Amino acid sequence: MEQIAPPVLVVGWAPDGALRILDQRRLPAALEMRDLHTVDEVADAIRTLAVRGAPAIGVAAAIGLAAATRGRAAADIEAAAATLRSTRPTAVNLGWALDRMLAVARAHATAPAPARDQALRDEAERIRAEDAAMCRAIGELGAPLIEDGMRVLTHCNAGALATAGIGTALAPVYVAHARGARVQVWADETRPLLQGARLTAWELAQAGIPVTVLADNMAASLMARGEVDLVLVGADRIAANGDTANKVGTYGLAVLAKHHGIPFVVCAPWSTVDPRTPDGAAIVIEQRAADEVTHLAGTRVAAEGAATYNPAFDVTPHTLITRIVTDRGVFAPPYVLGPNPDVLPPPV
Predict the structure, then answer these.
(1) I need a labelling partner for 336 at 20 to 30 A (CA). Which of 109, 247, 272, 302 fits?
(2) So which residues are the catalytic ones?
(3) What is the structure's pLDDT at 338?
(4) pTM above 0.90, yes or no
(5) Which CATH number fits domain 11-136: 3.30.70.141, 2.30.40.10, 3.40.50.1950, 1.20.120.420?
C-alpha cells in the first residue's frame, strides 16, 4: 500500500501532553501550531474554527478532554465534556468522540487519578489513530470512482486539514493520484469563510495535485460547459435515510449535479452516520455570527443596517446523492443506515 502522508500535522499531541493543533484561521498566510492546555482553550479553538472539519473536531475534543482534565475529579471531566459538546451542534463526530471518552471516564470513576488519566489518554489516541485509518479506508474504497483524467469538483475542505489522516472527500483523490491517475480538482472558494480557497487549494498544491479555485456561483456554468465529471463532498452528519448535512452550498451543488447528470458522491467516516437522526429535517443547523458575512478579512463588504443569514450547513436530500463512501463500504440508494448502527445495509 502506498504511503500517503498528510501535508502537516492537523491535530495531535504536544510533547507536554497538551492538544496540538494547526491554527487553520491563519492559512494560507501562515503555518502556525498552537498547544492548548485548558478546556476553555479547546472549546474556543473548535468554536472559532481554529480546528475544523467533523473528524478533526472529534479528535481534538478527545485529546483536549484527556489533556485538560489530568488529575481532575470525575465531575470535572463530565463538566468539561459538556462544555466541549456545546461548541458546535451539527457535527456528529464531536458528540461521538466525547461519548467514548465519557464511557472510559465513568468506567474508571473510582480508580486513582493517574490510572484514569492514562485510560483517557489511551482512548483519545485510539480515536486519533482510528480516524487516520478511516480516512485511508475511504480513500481505498472511493478511488475506483476516479478515472484517469477526471475533473473533480469539491466544496469547503474535506481533505487532510479536516481530519487526522488524508481526509474524507479528498482521500480518494489522494489515493488515485498516488497510483498515477491524472486528476484535476475544481475547488469552490466556499463563502463566507473561504475554506475551499484557503485550505483545499493549499493542501492540494502542497501535494502536487492540480487545483483551480472558482467562486461558488461559477459551478453551474462550469458544469454546463461539461468540465466537471464528478462531485466529491464530505459530511458533518448523515441521517439514517441518507440525508446529509455539509457546509452550506453543498445542497446547491447536488441540485446542479442532478440537472447535469454528474455523479454526486458523499465521503465520510462511519462515525458521521447518526442512526438516531431519521432524516435531514431532524438535523440541528448551526447559525454563525453575522460578521462572517458582513466582513471579509476584517473589512466590511455589506451595507450597514442589512440583516444577515448565516447557517454553517445545509442538508442535501438522499435523493440527490449517487453514492455514500464510508470506511465500512460504498452505499447506493436506497439508503437505510439505521436505526441499529451495528447492522449495515449491503454495500455496493
Answers:
(1) 247
(2) 236
(3) 67
(4) yes
(5) 1.20.120.420
